[in-house]
Amino acid sequence: MENFPIPAPGFNGASRRTEVDNVFNWFRQGWAIFIVNPGAWIAMMVILIVIYLGLALVPWIGPLASHLLTPVLAAGMLLACERAARQEEFAITDLFAGFQHHTGSLVMLGVLYMLGMLVVFVLAFVFVGGGVAGGLLIGNPIGAGVALGGVFLAGLLWMLLSLPIVMAIWFAPALVVFNRLQPVDALKASFHACLKNTLVFLVYGLISLVLCFFAALPLGLGFLVLGPVLAGSVYASYRDIFIGA
Q: 92: exposed, middle or buried (C-beta count within 10 Å: 0-12, 13-18, 19+)?
């Protein structure tokens, strides 16, 4: 016999299609989240940049560690976004909130993300190596063309294989933190949400590229502002697309 009240079913990762116009609202919300406490956001970005630059200096292990940490640090940014959106106080230390909440699931996301990007790198490296080796064996201008063709194909392969991985990881930290989904379920839900809104995210990506271009002009200092705005836009898009968010 059922007990009353019957508990509501758990969130299953269901998402909806949204309108392209909503992209502009995501950026507006991202800006609104930033101006709640610009000082704290800029300090978070400085810390993030230092972390990733430090990892980039470590051969081989550094890039792998950066992929491993990305979901954990992204969760901290998203939790800070939620507090800012609710007009609650948040601090610079919220950047590391992912090490305190749902850490196991977030680390597992990082492991899966790291392994996926590692496979993509190996496949692209094989293409580059094959193209360059073939060009050297030919040893004339045609060989140079073969080598360049191998590099081009490797870059194209890297983009094509990386895209599904990025789609899967895009909303996964938010789904783990806010909806308590298991890592694999979060990756699947994120991928399907991005696939369902392909045109929307194409527009979002193009606008983000333009903003990144202008952010890079003043010695890259614009990213201290753009980074938090993009984080806020991801939070806004998550709230817009996922039912029960």
A: middle
Task: Give the pair of three-digit tokens for residue 132.
Answer: 């360059």
* Predicted local distance difference test score (pLDDT) of residue 47: 97
The structure's pTM equals 0.87
In a domain, 9, yes or no: no
Give the burial class of 137: count Cβ atoms within 10 A of its Cβ; 0-12 exposed, 13-18 middle, 19 or more buried. exposed
Q: What's the length of the chain?
A: 245
The alpha-helical segments, DSSP class H, found in 171-197 are 172-179, 183-196
In a domain, 36, yes or no: yes
Asked whether the beta carbons of 175 and 186 are under 8 A apart, the reply is yes
- Return the DSSP state at 99: G
CA distance 136 to 130: 10
For residue 67, being part of any structural domain is answered with yes
Q: Which domain holds residue 234?
A: 22-241
What are the two backbone dihedrals, phi and then psi, of residue 17, each rounded to the nearest 5 degrees? -80, 140
Tally of structural domains, the chain: 1
For residue 1, tell me if it sits in a domain. Answer: no
| pLDDT tens, residue by residue, 20-58 | 999 999 999 999 999 999 999 999 999 999 999 999 999
Tally of CB atoms within 10 A around 114: 19
> What is the token pair recorded at 72?
């954990």
Distance of CA 18 to the CA centre of its chain: 19
